[in-house]
Amino acid sequence: MTPIPRRRLRAAAALSVVSATAGGLLTTVSATAASAAVSCTSPSFTRQFFANTTFSGTPKKTDCDSVIDQDWGTGSPATGVPTDNFGVRWSLTRDFGSGGPFALTAATRDGIRVYVDGVRKVDVWKNVSTTQTKTVNLTIPSGKHTLRVDFVNWTGSANVKFAYTPRTSATVDKVKPLAPTGVKAVLDNATAQAKVSWPANKEMDLAGYRVYRRLAGTSTYTHVKTTTATAYAGLPPEAGRTYYYEVRAYDKAGNTSTGSADQPVTTIAVTTPADLAARGLDAGIALTWKPVPGAVRYNVLRDNPYGDDLVRTTTATSFTDTTVARSETWMYRVAAVDGAGRASACTAEYNPAAEARRPVAAPHDVTATPGISEAVLQWKINPDTDGDYYGFHVYRSSTLPVDTSAEPVRCGTTSKRLTDGRVQYTCTDSWAGSGAKYHYVIKGHDDRLVKSLPSPTVTVTTLEADQTPPAAVTGLTAEATEYGIVLDWDSNTEPDLARYEVYSGELLSDGEERVCSASAIEYFGPGDTAYTHERLPDGEEKCFFIDAVDTSGNSSFKWTRNANVVVVTEKDMTPSVETPDGSPLSLTAYPGDAPGSVELIWDGDGDATGYLVHRWNPATQAYEKLTAEPVTEQSYTDSAAPTGTTHFYRVTAVYADGTESAPDADWVILPPVQ
Fold this sequence. Notes:
By secondary structure, the chain is mainly beta. The protein folds into 6 domains: about 5-165, Galactose-binding domain-like (Jelly Rolls); about 185-265, Sandwich (Immunoglobulin-like); about 275-355, Sandwich (Immunoglobulin-like); about 365-460, Immunoglobulins (Immunoglobulin-like, Sandwich), CATH 2.60.40.10; about 475-570, Immunoglobulin-like, CATH 2.60.40.10; about 585-670, Immunoglobulin-like (Sandwich). Helices cover about 5% and strands about 45% of the residues. The protein has a 6-stranded antiparallel sheet with strand order 2-1-4-9-6-7, covered by helices on one side. Strands 3-10-5-8 form a 4-stranded antiparallel sheet, with no helix packed on it. Strands 14-13-16-17 form a 4-stranded antiparallel sheet, with no helix packed on it. It is elongated. The N and C termini lie far apart (about 100 Å).
């Protein structure tokens, strides 16, 4: 039928109604205009309700309908539509893909007509009192086509049902699906997989897709996946090769399309990283290397002094190993790893550029105390973590910053181990001027003269000569506690007081007298009047006294040899159960970061299947388990240790036969939380 030109639509409106009544082939002008306001997404139908059986005039309602299956009975199907003599029209345009055999099925009371691309295929058009059905088999060509369904109800009940479905029997359907188009294939570097994707076919009877692969230079395809999805990801067989992928669609009748256009994917074989270099820093050993194409991570191997490799993994092309001990030489190797976990060969086993040493730590807790024409410097190091010190260099300057490239000052250094395991060094710069201001920094070095970072800068002004010592300290008391000895004393209010020196020692018999043989154990500023001497409460008798030292270096004790001595007997907290010798373990206990926590670490036993941790309970006079079952780690956190006391711990190794090793023990002091 020749379409009516747009300029003639208004004049031809009456003719459209007549033609529709006679043959139902024309779409009325008013219905088309009214439906423009509603947009339905295919394959939903655009549905229009008319208050007549000629589909003329403006529809009373337009909406979307996904399935034509309604039973309105004797009622009205929509507002403004009568219960008799009304019409409903459904229409859609959709892509049928490759097309093929379809069945149009209709069931209605009263009339129904179905059009495909404007050609009537179903015609059941009469007023009936019972539902009438009809099925039409036809072949729909490939591509887009328009369906229109007209339904009318003249009188009585109204119901309508219509469906169009592909015929999927292999004896009927001989039409192949369309070959998939828009296929894309890329290499996913994160997984080393080939990722293939494609848009969905338009076939209504599509069953799925088959993905094929072939090696470049060959013509043989390998079937790698059958899927109902529109994507595939898989690992190609070999790295460093090019593979082509194609996709074929298949329908429910077993027909298979031709293959899509081949899409290449070139895999990458990762190579050994180049230019591996190591540099010793205070934070650790810093490693760098060249990036490797296709690598998603790198395995870093460290050779320890016994030849074992400790693996680290990183996604970057640099890595700082902060776990290595200081003052030791370490060598490294690196391998590249692709997304599938395939690793390259490691760098050379011996490479001087990949060898480095972490320097000793910078001295910490640095203080400078003025003396008469001298400065007393003190600093601390932790021999367990700070490295092996061979010596120290002290640098002095009257300006900032201190030049550490200059000649260090001559300074006699003494040391002592503190109760917490650290070592305190004392150095007196006797070459300083009187009443002069100086800045100091200190560097440590190992036996290869590899220097640490500089310590924090300390500043001091030396004293002018003063021959009057401070008054002796009074009011000293000592209290024995479960965490050590608590000392308190009266404040010395002299304006030139520089510090207090705490002396601790033992009472010795000297004829009929008892003498306190003591040495200085701690220094405090002039504002301090209390000190807790944390030490193992093991019942010993100790003596203490406090020396006051002024800013000129004058000492109340050293000048007068008189002091207020107090004697105290420590509490005896040691367990009544002795720890036997011969343990294969080595336990270390130290306070945790959180209040009331203790960290335990130990050297393990290679034959052990686990470890049991015990803590001494003074109330029961027994070591009690903290771990009901053996732990497999070589560390444990006791997060429920009371503060204000000393705790004793044991660790035993547990073996496969259920026996335990001899225990190793350690203790730790938890002072009260302030």
